[in-house]
Amino acid sequence: MSSLFGSILAGVVETTVDRTFADEEGFDFRPVTQADGVNGRPVTDPDRAFVAEVPAIYDDRPRDLDESGRGRDRPGFGDRMPQISVQTCRLPWTVVRGDEVTRRATGEVFRVTEIEPDGQTRVNLQVTLMQRGGRP
Fold first, then answer.
1. From the CA atom positions of the chain, what is the Rg in Å?
2. Where are the strands (E) in 7-132, listed by range?
3. What is the per-residue pLDDT across 81-102, written as a single tens digit (0 to 9) for each?
4. Model's pTM, two decimal places?
């Protein structure tokens, strides 16, 4: 970000947001690629380094869905869609679908399914729970 506003946002506001809302223990990001092509098993990507203790915000509040799985304004089906919001500057590489994120507070392991840049300094990651944690 080259603007004055962007610099202030990244340097002051986002740091305060992480300090206020992020999990204290942080998250571990494991870059993943598919062995032997698109249908292969997931393996650690040797071209991107593992990153530990990244401050990020976890959210899994319930949302209402209609029959097609889209959000709606009136009651329908209840669902939880966990997401993780992280500053892009906290990672030395770009997150891609299939990467794994471990929530250190609980030990839960998630796989990134959708990536939504917020247009400023963060990216919102829609994730799927792959492994329940061993901690409360």
1. 16
2. 27-30, 32-34, 42-44, 51-54, 57-59, 62-65, 77-80, 83-87, 100-103, 108-117, 122-131
3. 889 999 888 899 999 999 999 9
4. 0.74
